[in-house]
Specification:
Structural class: alpha/beta
Radius of gyration: 16 Å
Strand content: 5-15%
Number of strands: 5
Largest sheet: 5 strands, parallel
Order of helices and strands: EHEHHHHEHEHHEHH
CATH architecture: 3-Layer(aba) Sandwich
Number of domains: 1
Strand order of the largest sheet: 2-3-1-4-5
Shape: globular
């Protein structure tokens, strides 16, 4: 019997990380978010900050020189992707869990009994939330949201050839701005 995994993909500021942690806590299963960065760092030898940046920057951005040399063989980003892929697969095979981000929806599409969730919200809700929760500056948080989401979308497309946030790629998409964080948790728990 396959283990039950929940993957949470999310727009920046939508509360996806919070929702994932609450779902895991209420179900009594582990949630892997920053813990994934630690595990990837341990296996790769790279710092967690480097890995975090590498997972959010796309070809043409921070890693453009690395990606432009792909014809010469694998690069740091490809190496990190392989480690990330293996760790996520192993965690899902080990037992029930919630995994936030890191293309886990794609990685586990055929490897686990997996509920793939996408959390989104309107710009106003997310802008207010990143100022309040993350201490982002109050001047132009919308620009930060757009940049972060764009990076996530391009990275996801690069490694998965799937459109990030496209409803057909998930089992359920939830608007945390309309439904609220706790209602999203309740719905996901009900689907588990």
């Amino acid at each position: 019997m396959k283990n039950r995994a929940i993957t949470i993909s999310r727009e920046f500021g939508s509360g996806g990380r919070t929702i994932g942690k609450k779902v895991a806590e209420e179900l009594g299963i582990p949630c892997y978010d920053s813990e994934l960065l630690q595990k990837i760092a341990e296996q790769s030898g790279f710092s967690e900050n480097y890995i975090k940046d590498a997972g959010e920057y796309s070809p043409g951005g921070y890693l453009s020189s690395a990606f432009s040399h792909r014809a010469a063989g694998p690069n740091n980003a490809d190496y990190l992707w392989t480690i990330q892929y293996n760790i996520i697969t192993e965690l899902a095979e080990k037992g029930p869990c919630v995994i936030v981000g890191r293309c886990a929806d794609y990685i586990l599409r055929d490897k686990a009994d997996c509920l793939r969730v996408f959390i989104h919200a309107d710009m106003k809700f997310r802008a207010e939330r990143i100022v309040k929760v993350y201490g982002e500056r109050e001047a132009a948080p919308e620009q930060r949201l757009k940049e972060k989401d764009k990076r996530r979308a391009i990275y996801h497309r690069f490694y998965t050839n799937m459109k990030w946030g496209h409803a057909q790629n998930y089992d359920i998409t939830l608007n945390s701005g309309t439904l609220g964080i706790d209602t999203c948790v309740y719905i996901i728990k009900g689907l588990y």
